[in-house]
Amino acid sequence: MFRNNEEEDESCLEEMRKLSSFSIEAEIRYISSQKLKERRNKLVKDIEFGYDTTEESICFHNFVSFLYWESDERKRAMEFATKALEMGKEISSLRETENIVTICNFYHFNEGMGNVAEAKEFLRNFKDLSRQDDFQNLKFSAKAELAVCISKLGPFCSAKAIEMFRESVNKMPTFVDCWQFYFALTLRRKTHILAIQNKTDAELIGEDREAFDIFMKVINNTSSKILRSRSFTEVGLIVFNNQDKYKDMNYMEFFEKAIEVNPKSYHALQRYGQHLRYQKNLQKSKEILEKSLTIRETTIGYHHLGLTFQNMVLQEHREKKKARHPNRKNILKQGYFNTRSHVPRQQSSKAVSPDMKNNYDREKSLEATRYSGQVRAKMKSVRYVTG
Q1: What is the greatest pairwise CA distance in the chain?
Q2: Tens digits of per-residue pLDDT, 310-364?
Q3: pLDDT, tens digit, for every residue of 218-274?
Q4: Rounded Cα gap, residues 67 and 49, in angstroms
Q5: Domain of 352, in residue numbers
Q6: DSSP character for 242?
Q7: CATH of the domain at 106
Q8: Within a 10 A sphere around the Cβ of 312, how many other Cβ atoms?
Q9: Among 127, 154, 181, which residue terminates a domain?
Q10: Is residue 365 domain-resident?
Q11: Are residues 141 and 276 in the same domain?
């Protein structure tokens, strides 16, 4: 009997390792300490800003606690792990949390600190869950949660995350909005040209129909206005990047719909402002991007606001230049053909002499220097922060 219990414990411990955040140690091994710290700090800011679903909040509390543990900041690790444990208890029909990742992490934390009694208590919790009828579904949720965490490590981990999503979310008996959203988000990012890691990745560029379909399902099924708004935003990006494939759709309408669903979505406002700049609607782009930054300051928001300021300065420069010399383009064009053509032609009275051309080149160089200074002055007024 004792031998059977010992074998059962060994089997449980092996499975607990696979279902804990410690299972992704192989993925973080190739990331520098500085990069991990940056990603962790970004996740902490996301947690402070808040999530719309408890599942997301527990997921990222678990992940951040593990990242703190890996950097030997055990006190901070236990703070986030304890918060995840408390949130899990609040949504559980039992007295204890049913989040497997939280339970497995706590077991390894306590084992690492030498708290044998506490570690055994979490082992007992895991065994109790394993006897429940819905244990398999709880395992699927744990794998989906770990897939989300892996996807946050960067594009080089996307393939592994997608594989784990397919092994979990596609096998769940019900459609879980938040896990499906992150699955689609990982698929969409994996098909972007900037995510290419190898030849296989290059073949995925533009193959985003699966992501499109999942986002549409989230839009039609979720009760979360944040997830619904973000899904509209992501669909807008897919349509913009594949306009030949989605000719009957207007990507700007998806951004506008995202803002209508959630007016405080800084994601939607940032993308809307960015694409307004692409359409040369600079004043509105500036207003929308500034509004997004009042909700949450992010590097993406400041980046696109800086580019909008830059375009506004360039546009102002061109308008002033055109007002000063309304016919200069035609004069230069005529002079160019008169001096470069192989076919002899009558010299035009408006032709530009070589001396005039050299003077124009010098003037153009001076003007370029002046408006570059204006751009730098505008850019200095934009405060770049990490967010």
Answers
A1: 110
A2: 999 999 988 888 887 776 666 555 555 555 544 455 544 445 455 554 555 555 5
A3: 999 988 999 999 999 999 999 998 888 888 999 999 999 999 999 999 999 999 999
A4: 19
A5: 264-336+348-387
A6: T
A7: 1.25.40
A8: 18
A9: 154
A10: yes
A11: no
d(C-alpha 350, C-alpha 87), whole Å:
79
- Is the model's pLDDT at 377 over the cut of 80? no
Q: How many domains does the chain have?
A: 2
Which of 56, 57, 74 is CA-nearest to residue 65? Answer: 74
CA distance 295 to 311: 24
**φ and ψ at 364, to 5 degrees?**
-65, -40
The whole-number pLDDT of residue 350 equals: 47
Q: What is the pLDDT of residue 30?
A: 83
Query: HEC profile for 204-216?
Result: CCCCCHHHHHHHH
How far is CA 236 from each of CA 232, 272, 286, rounded to the nearest angstrom?
A: 6, 9, 20
What's the whole-number average pLDDT of the chain?
84
Q: Is the dihedral of CA 116, 121, 126, 130 positive or negative?
A: positive
Which tens digits make up the pLDDT trace of 350-361? 454 555 545 555
CA distance linking residue 17 with residue 112, whole number of Å: 13
- Position 52 confidence tier, pLDDT thresholds 50, 70, 90: confident
CA 116, 121, 126, 127 torsion: positive or negative? positive
Does the pLDDT at position 69 exceed 90?
yes
**Among residues 81, 143, 167, 76, which one has the least CA distance to residue 118?**
81
Residues in the chain: 387
Amino acid at 204: L
Which amino acid would we find at residue 286? K
Global pTM value: 0.79
The DSSP string of 104-147 is HHHHHHHHHTT-HHHHHHHHHHHHHHHTSTTHHHHHHHHHHHHH
Q: Residues 242, 243, 245, 251: what is their CA dihedral angle, to the nearest 10 degrees?
A: 90
The structure tokens listed for 210 are 């699966």
What tens digit of pLDDT does each residue of 110-145 get? 999 999 999 999 999 999 999 999 999 999 999 999
Residue 104 class from Cβ within 10 Å (0-12 exposed, 13-18 middle, 19+ buried)?
buried
Can you list the positions of beta strands (E) in the chain? none
Residue 217's contacts (CB-CB under 8 Å, 6 or more residues apart) are 175, 180
CA atoms within 13 A on the CB side of 278: 10
